[in-house]
Amino acid sequence: MKFLSALTTALLSTAALAKNIVLTNDDGWASTEIRATYRELTNAGHNVYLVAPLEQRSGFGGTFTFSYTDKLLHDDQFHFKKEGDAAWGHEENDDHIWYFNATPAACVGFAFDYLLPTHFADVKIDLVVSGVNQGLNLDIPMFTISGTIGATYNAVYRGYSAVAFSGSTSNNSFYQDSLNDDSNAPANIYAKKVVEITSKLFESQGDNERVLPLGTGLNVNFPKVTTLVKEGSEECSDPQFVFSRLTGEHVAIPGLKLNETSGVFEFSNLKNGSIATGVKYNGIFDLPSENSVTENGCWTSVSAFSVDYSAPEQEANEAKALLGDLLVQRS
């Protein structure tokens, strides 16, 4: 009897922590990392709705564009979906895995404005997860560039709790070629770490209505693990979480340089930031930057961000004063 009571309690506890999650990314619905993340979140007992771009949409930030036709005009990057196929749809054997020929931010719109109300009885979503991205999205410059983060803050705009996850992989791999059960595979390690942090958030949520404060999201970046670690460097298979900030020292600002040999420009990040990225207006000032966390050792950066982009009161008033009598009060 005691055993049955304990079992019942355990089952009820598990059910209480089973959440409804929208999962998206910017690498496409058929990427290895998002499929590994879908598998692990589903195995953890969550009800996951994967809604992601048809194909690679990295670097689109918060751009909100989508297909103007109901059919595809070309094959996707992996030739998984073909020219003439529907511009949106789901896996034949899983109606919780959807693609949409659109940017990541628009996929979030597709999920909440069409898919969930039309096909899933407008189910209440507890959390939006974006990623795991194939490549890091560190510091404030990537906040506006990354499609992974763009999907995240689009969800936060809409009032949802959302977390962006990015890994140190750079391969653009197709899940049917690369997804496996190898516990040392970076995609699988990252996916399990997604479950670890989301489980902690759900546990901490308790009876609260929201997972994260309104208007707030998280940006998480995983370091190189197992096969990605350079020979002679510290081994890493279980990177621990370090709370960080989007700005600060060692922020990598996208730049460029001319290759004198080829005569064309190349990316050249300015890794020490600028006087502007060192400004401390918001947040916890003594936290390390994301880049400084992930570049050395087995550490995962976790940063909180807000979608209130207004300048702090003092700086806003200074800017207002500079405009002086040019400004008027609306009647």
Overview of the molecule:
- By secondary structure, the protein is α/β, with parallel strands linked by helices.
- The protein has one domain: Survival protein SurE-like phosphatase/nucleotidase (Stationary-phase Survival Protein Sure Homolog, Chain: A, 3-Layer(aba) Sandwich), CATH 3.40.1210.
- Helix content is 31%, strand content 19%.
- The strands form 2 sheets. It has a 9-stranded mixed sheet with strand order 3-4-2-1-5-6-7-11-8, sandwiched between helices. A two-stranded antiparallel ribbon has the order 9-10.
- A hairpin with a 2-residue loop joins strand 3 and strand 4.
- It is globular.
- About 2% of the residues have low confidence.
- InterPro entries: SurE, SurE-like_Pase/nucleotidase, SurE-like_sf.
* CATH hierarchy: architecture: 3-Layer(aba) Sandwich
Order of helices and strands: HEHEEEHEHHEHHEEEEHEH
Overall mean confidence score, pLDDT: 92
- Uncertain runs with pLDDT below 50, 5 residues or more? 8-13
Distance between the terminal alpha carbons, to the nearest Å? Answer: 73 Å
**β content, as a range?**
15-25%
User: What is the helical fraction, as a range of percent?
Assistant: 25-40%
Number of strands: 11
In DSSP terms (H or I, runs of 4 or more residues), the helix count works out at: 9
